[in-house]
TrEMBL record:
Protein name according to UniProt: TonB-dependent receptor
Transmembrane segments: none
InterPro entries linked: Beta-barrel_TonB_sf (IPR036942), CarboxyPept-like_regulatory (IPR008969), Plug_dom (IPR012910), Plug_dom_sf (IPR037066), TonB-dep_rcpt-like (IPR039426)
Lineage: Bacteria, Pseudomonadati, Bacteroidota, Flavobacteriia, Flavobacteriales
SUPFAM superfamilies with a match to the protein in the record: Carboxypeptidase regulatory domain-like, Porins
Family indicated by similarity: Belongs to the TonB-dependent receptor family.
Keyword Methyltransferase belongs to the record: no
Membrane topology: Multi-pass membrane protein
UniProtKB keywords: Cell outer membrane, Membrane, Receptor, Signal, Transmembrane, Transmembrane beta strand, Transport
N-terminal signal peptide: 1-20
Length: 921
């Protein structure tokens, strides 16, 4: 065989040259071309080679490298390396180019066994006809066939990785939540919000069905030769359907490892009857097992026996310190602007930290990029409005939401003179901008502000406000690596204006600010292994309290406690690994550190005596940004899932966490005038750990979900206070604080019906929560240093949420809650001192107030479903506390005229009807 040496120079824009010669010093052949097809034609005309190929398969192949001193075989190997083309040489100088597959000219060794005998075919009396004109063959002939990958010799792999993106042919937008299902019904992939997918397929033929809401159904036949990328475009479906049921990833609750969040969509909350007809995803969350509040009109949440400050509340990645209006009666976030709420109450992922009990991750909607839209509601107390508009069609959008309350007319209409001058109002606004810069970059900017202003008495006005801003940038490096960058600012503060027209009018306040940056990365190594890692840092700035004269006539002197600063930093890494089809594990580690920063004044106390001003020993002053205290703590997160069958799994989890910021409140529940305190030399960081074990079951293809999960939690350095503690404007706050051990345990049961005319869920929780405050000093010991029930220990908690659809327009909703009465401290006797009678109290939290139960009812009326309408309306007629139950919020005792009298307070003691009108356009 004649050997030739060929020099090929390829340039993307100006062409390339091929040199072929019999002798390196003689007979140089030069060929100029831009595409592979052009090069082969010229090579065929001047060299001793003939090429056979499908011309259409070469049009788009351009060569961009330089190849020198190679044989024709080596040249073709290099040129075709990044294409789907293979080649076959026969008769020395003839070359066939094939797409995807390889041409074999001999059988592999050992194909025929040594002892095998080839038998002749016996003649038959009639001819045999093979008919291909059957229904299955006709159907297959109409299915688009796509070939992927390049066949390689000696490749023994049993599966190949297929990845890509699906888009809408009409708009170019990605199609999220599209299911890709194999012919045997196995779910192969579910597309992400960006339309991306990845799956493992067997070599050879695979028939896949593509399904998504609003998209024409499609079937594709894939011939798989190797790994590769496939991008599909699909047409919109405009068919009118009687009913559409969307079920994405129906076995999610069974298949995900421990630590998967509870997810609540804003639309789910619209049929849950709540006070004054206001939609509220946070209130709906309290109907889930393991999540409760201290009572009606209470701010904050208690998750699995934890304190209210042990929950991390996030709004588009930024911390929000008080997410509720008017003592917890209303959510502080416009419900129409919320897209989804994710609640982590078990094994919290390593990417989250800073709190012991849970994470409430609230995300706003992404504004519509195709058309202007809006949604509004009008109720007896509040009005809501959300507007969405494209900025650049198909690419960027803006969303604006505003809400206000006008409750003053209710207070003034009450037949109670003490409330005639009372007022209660609030407003909030949210604005976000979302921009899909290109296929690899997305930016989201959110700003938010809320303000509460209320006065129940005639001389004091309470004002508190939230403000935040966040920037989220998502960057896709490639199909395996994704980065998320978050920058955020949070501000929260309150002030009390005390004004009664005298010379002691004052303004009392508190402020906290938080600046945070987070860099989060995801690496998808394979369909069985994924990594999440990153770093984050937050700077706290706290004004513990200030007081100043309210007007020029006031003699009150201005005073501001010294500002506190702290820097919290963390690095984390987690890996999710499918050990087998049945067994999956998620392991994570997070290392958090905290540094208190000056300027600051810290006190030391006599270790042999209780902390008080009289036992103070020394004063230490720190300069600006000087480290006051530095500490680091490792945190571990482990979750595992084992599938007993596709619809039944067992999950277990273990996690540890550290918390460096604490709320200071001596109330049963968080109030708007509570302050926050950073860890320092006298206040220790809270530390906790949790174990969980549960069984999860889906019934009738996710028509029903059933779960039973138990947990056990322990905590150290939990914050509590001495009896009668003074918390506001106290420069020696550590003398009022007690820190002890906490523990809680319980079992949570949930059965949920997702489909059918009747849907909703029933949840039951049995849990206990205890606190132990022990010390060698009697003044710092509570209940003799033994464990006692915490303020939010309520053993039995039952929640029923149900909605029954009579027709597509009319439905009836019900919400029932039963809870064990919370613990209280009550007088058990009295004594006389200086001719006055005083109460002797029981051990702390040794008795309970009466049990709590409440039934809410709602009737929902949907507008007609005509296609050509300006908008769609929705009416809600509801009755909150339909049974008129006078549920006690608290019991308190006072001494009047030398006698002890008991009083019971309640928030809503009568049925509260309301009617709300909602409108979408």
């Amino acid at each position: 065989m004649l050997k030739k040496t060929i020099f090929l120079f390829v340039f993307c824009l100006i062409g390339f040259s091929i040199y072929a010669q019999d002798n390196p010093a003689k007979d140089t052949i030069k060929i100029n071309a831009q595409t592979l097809k052009e090069a082969l034609k010229q090579l065929n005309s001047i060299a001793d080679y003939s090429f056979y190929y499908d011309a259409n398969s070469l049009d788009s192949i351009r060569l961009t490298k330089t190849y020198t001193s190679t044989t024709i075989q080596e040249l073709l190997e290099a040129v075709l390396q990044n294409t789907n083309l293979n080649y076959y040489v026969f008769e020395g100088n003839k070359i066939i180019l094939t797409e995807n597959n390889i041409i074999y000219d001999k059988l592999p060794e050992g194909f025929f066994k040594k002892d095998s005998v080839v038998k002749p075919i016996e003649p038959v009396s009639r001819p045999i006809f093979y008919s291909r004109n059957n229904k299955q063959t006709r159907l297959r002939s109409r299915i688009e066939t796509v070939r992927l990958g390049k066949e390689q010799k000696n490749n023994s792999r049993t599966s190949f990785r297929v990845y890509g993106r699906v888009t809408n042919n009409n708009t170019g937008e990605p199609i999220p939540d599209m299911t890709i299902i194999a012919q045997n019904g196995t779910l192969k992939a579910l597309t992400s919000l960006d339309g991306n997918f990845e799956m493992e397929l067997n070599p050879g033929e695979n028939v896949l069905n593509f399904r998504a809401l609003g998209i024409k159904q499609a079937t594709k036949r894939l011939i798989i030769f190797n790994d590769g990328e496939l991008n599909f475009g699909f047409d919109e479906s405009l068919e009118q359907l009687d009913e559409v049921v969307v079920q994405g990833n129906i076995y999610r609750n069974v298949e995900e490892t421990a630590g998967a969040p509870e997810e609540i969509d804003s639309e789910e909350s619209k049929t849950v009857p709540l006070v004054l007809g206001e939609r509220d995803v946070l209130k709906v969350a309290t109907a889930l097992p393991g999540i409760s509040t201290a009572g009606e009109g209470s701010t904050g949440f208690n998750v699995r026996g934890g304190r209210a400050d042990q929950n991390l509340m996030l709004f588009d990645g930024a911390t929000i310190y008080n997410p509720q209006h008017f003592f917890g009666i209303f959510s502080a976030i416009n419900p129409f602007s919320i897209g989804k709420l994710s609640v982590y109450k078990g094994n919290i992922p390593a990417a989250y930290g800073g709190r012991l009990s849970s994470v409430f991750d609230i995300n706003t909607k992404i504004g519509d990029t195709t058309a202007f839209k809006g949604e509004a509601s009008l109720g007896p107390v509040t009005g809501n409005l959300v507007l969405q508009s494209p900025v650049k069609k198909g690419k960027s959008s803006i969303l604006f939401g505003a809400r206000g309350a006008y409750a003053n007319w209710i207070l003034r209409s009450l037949n109670e003179k003490s409330l005639n001058k009372s007022r209660a109002s609030f407003y909030d606004g949210v604005l976000n901008y979302n921009d899909r810069v290109n296929e690899n970059n997305t930016v989201k900017v959110t700003t938010y502000y809320s303000d509460d202003n209320f006065s129940i008495s005639s001389d004091s006005t309470y004002i508190y406000r939230n403000k935040l801003a966040s920037l989220q940038w998502q960057h896709k490096f490639n199909d395996k690596n994704l980065a998320n960058v978050q920058l955020s600012y949070t501000g929260y503060g309150f002030n009390i204006d005390y004004e009664r027209g005298s010379n002691d009018d004052f303004k009392l306040g508190f402020d906290i600010e938080e600046y945070r940056a987070k860099f989060d990365f995801n690496y998808l190594k394979s369909t069985k292994t994924s990594f999440n890692y990153g770093i984050e840092s937050g700077l706290y700035s706290v004004v513990p309290g200030y007081i100043e004269p309210l007007n020029n006539n006031s003699i009150v002197k201005s005073n501001e406690l010294k500002r506190e600063k702290g820097l919290e930093t963390a690095a984390y890494l987690s890996v999710e690994q499918d050990i087998s089809k049945e067994f999956s594990i998620n392991m994570g580690v997070r290392y958090s550190s905290y540094a208190g920063l000056g300027s600051s004044t810290q006190y030391t106390y006599d270790p042999n005596a209780p902390r008080s001003e009289s036992t103070r020993q020394d004063t230490i002053n720190y300069q600006n940004n000087e480290f006051i205290d530095f500490q680091g703590n490792p945190e571990f997160r482990i979750g595992a899932r084992y599938l007993l069958n596709p619809s039944l799994s067992i999950k277990a989890g273990f996690n540890t966490a550290t918390q460096y910021i604490h709320i200071l409140t001596n109330n049963t529940t968080i109030s708007p005038i509570d302050t926050w305190k950073l860890t320092d030399t006298n206040i220790k960081a809270q530390k906790g750990q949790q174990f969980s074990l549960g069984v999860f079951k889906n019934i009738e293809s996710n028509t029903y979900e059933v779960s039973l999960e138990g947990f056990y939690k322990t905590a150290r350095n939990v914050i509590d206070f001495k009896t009668g503690a003074q918390l506001l404007l106290n420069e020696n706050i550590e003398t009022e604080i007690l820190q002890g051990d906490g523990k809680s345990y319980g079992v949570e049961f949930l059965i949920r019906k997702n489909l059918g005319k009747l849907n909703g869920w029933l949840g039951y929780t049995y849990s206990r929560s205890f606190l132990k405050l022990d010390s060698e000093f009697e003044e710092e010991r509570v209940n003799n240093g033994e464990f006692f029930a915490s303020n939010f220990d309520k053993p039995h908690d039952v929640s029923l949420v149900a909605n029954y659809k009579f027709t597509k327009r009319y439905s009836l909703s019900a919400n029932f809650v039963y809870q064990t009465g919370r613990p209280v401290t009550v007088p058990v006797g009295n004594f006389n001192f200086n001719d006055a009678q005083y109460a002797a109290y029981s051990d702390r939290n040794s008795l309970r107030i009466p049990d709590f139960y409440r039934l809410d009812l709602g009737f929902n009326i949907e507008g007609n479903h005509k296609l050509n309408k300006v908008g769609h309306s929705f009416w809600t007629i509801s009755v909150y506390n339909a049974l008129g139950r006078n549920n006690p919020y608290s019991v308190f005792y006072v001494t009047e005229s030398g006698r002890i009298k008991a009083y019971k307070s309640s928030i809503f003691s009568i049925p509260v009807p309301s009617i709300t009108y909602n409108f979408k356009f």
